[in-house]
Write a structure and sequence with these properties.
InterPro entries: DCC1-like (IPR007263). One of its GO terms (molecular function) is protein-disulfide reductase activity. A four-stranded mixed sheet has the order 2-1-3-4. The chain has six helices and four strands. It is 50% helix and 14% strand. It is an alpha+beta fold. The radius of gyration is 14 Å and the shape is globular. It has one domain. Helix 3 runs antiparallel to helix 4.
Length: 119
């Protein structure tokens, strides 16, 4: 199955997550929203033959595609009824505070274009 992840190219957490995905999911295409031709993006996207998923649902679905059993189990766990709601809230909290969290952990602050985004 062909899969593409689209992430916020202005977000330090998102950039770090994209690097993590590239290392662990070599068969998945990982693009910033700039590379995909979008002016902005509100949540990570996972695009497959089955359609587009966003946010925590995209994360869980991606993890279920992992070549590593542990990450597949985490993806299945994230889609259980009660856990799915917790994951959705946790994703929303991180997404809403991603600029602050990025600064706290020393990543590029959200909203500041990187050199690669100025092309």
């Amino acid at each position: 199955m062909q899969a593409t992840v689209i992430y916020d190219g202005d977000c330090g957490i998102c950039e770090a997550s994209a690097r993590w995905i590239r290392q662990r999911f070599p068969e998945v295409s990982v693009l910033s929203h700039y590379e995909y031709g979008l002016s902005s993006i509100g949540a990570v996207w996972l695009i497959t033959d089955a359609g587009r998923k966003e946010g925590s649902v995209a994360v869980a679905s991606l993890l279920r595609m992992s070549p590593t059993r542990l990450w597949r189990y985490v993806g299945v766990f994230m889609q259980l009824p009660l856990i799915r709601n917790i994951a959705r809230v946790a994703y929303w909290c991180v997404a809403k505070n991603r600029a602050r969290i990025s600064r706290w952990v020393g990543l590029k602050a959200c909203g500041l274009p990187s050199a690669t985004n100025n092309k």
